[in-house]
Amino acid sequence: MMGEDAQLLALADQTLWVTALIGGPALISALVVGLVVGIVQAATSVNEQTLSFIPKLAVIALVFVVLGAAMMGLLADFMREIMAQVAGLSM
């Protein structure tokens, strides 16, 4: 029983790590662009909603184009590992 708990916690830890690695680049780039656009809007007193949305969307799309293959490769490797663990379980 104790080994199963350790396996489950290790799997949960690995799942959170893979999620952070996959989502991190897009979220961090959106945060940086939002911060820069917010500073520019505050400095120029322009409060247009689309000015913050369009650059974020463009940068996230660029991140997915540049890093999308690596993200999907990481996710595919993780799923293969999970499926191998499931196949190795004995009832």
What do these coordinates show?
- This protein has 91 residues and is mainly alpha-helical.
- The chain has one domain (2-87).
- The protein is 90% helix and 0% strand.
- The chain is built from 2 helices and no strands.
- The protein has helices spanning 2-44, 49-87.
- Helix 1 (2-44) runs antiparallel to helix 2 (49-87).
- The two termini are 13 Å apart.
Content-based structural category: mainly alpha
Helix content: over 70%
Major sheet details = none
The helix/strand series, from N terminus to C terminus, equals HH
How far is the first residue's CA from the last residue's CA?
A: 13 Å
Radius of gyration, CA atoms, in whole angstroms: 20 Å
Q: What's the oligomerization state?
A: single chain
Q: What can be said about this structure in brief?
A:
The protein is an all-alpha fold. It has helices spanning 2-44, 49-87.
Write the layout of secondary structure elements.
Layout lengths: L1 H43 L4 H39 L4
Provide key terms for this protein.
mainly alpha; elongated; 91 residues; 2 helices
